[in-house]
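Weekly modeling sync, notes
Attendees: S.R. (lead), two postdocs, one rotation student

Agenda item 3: backlog of single-chain predictions. S.R. asked that every request posted to the team notebook include the full sequence so nobody has to chase files. The rotation student volunteered to paste the first one in as an example of the format we agreed on. Action items at the bottom.

Example entry:
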Amino acid sequence: MYYYNQNDYPSVKYDRSSTSEVETVKSSGCGVCAACIVVNNLAGGELYTVSQMAKFSVDNGARDNSGTNINTLLNALCKAHSAFSFKTTTSESELVNHIKKGGLAICNQGDSYNVFSTAGHFVVAYKMSGKNIEILDPQMYDGKYDAYKRPQRIIKKTANGCIVSQTEMGKATADRNPAYFLVSYTKPKGSVKSKGVSYTVGRNYTLQTDLKVRTGAGTNYSQKKRSQLTESGKSNAKLGYYAVLKKGTVVTVNEIKKVGNDIWLRIPSGWIAGYYQGNLYVKL
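Predicted structure, as returned to the notebook:
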């Protein structure tokens, strides 16, 4: 399970353009952490660190005065990763059906009824616990679910959140529309072939040369910075400002995209060229 607590990121900037005040994920980033929880758990790999998601949110205009515009952020994420999709609803029955089918949801806590926070807050509906909903709360701290009237409003507290009834969930989000952002993930095609070269999602491959890591599948996409790689990616990258993985690095393929006769591979740190202009850069 991938879980991120905004309190762990006091030094990750999450500034608004409308103020000169320095703001961080800790102060304003529950939406950033909720998005990381949903995207990474559905994909089964860390597509975004919290720092990367915060930057992605700012770059795509999702940082607003209340924290994060989740609708804007999810639209940008789905555009960047076609395997993801989402829809919105105010229905608890739709929320429950979505979770039962393997989806995850970002829930929009309102201001009038305190279950997860005393004000607006995003939490993640992670799975069902019987008829109740298990929540991952991206702003957990000691004693949170022992305070106010929360002990009477939840079923029980957990290490990273709580379990809550559908009725209490509905009360918590009653003054929000949309109340729920239902996120789905369609696993990419299992394998792609070109000119006799084949790759399969979920398998490990080895880089045959140093390779740039890009934001998308193609040389028209920008090269990532080294700081934007996963921790594992950084440990296998060359020193320097831009992201270049070293020859011999073993990578796991999460998605495959064919562009003409070329094959691009999405790994946890980004996109790399597997087979490009007749050259085999990544193989078993």
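Discussion: group reviewed the output briefly. The chain has eight helices and 20 strands.
Action items: rotation student to repeat for the remaining queue; S.R. to check formatting next week.
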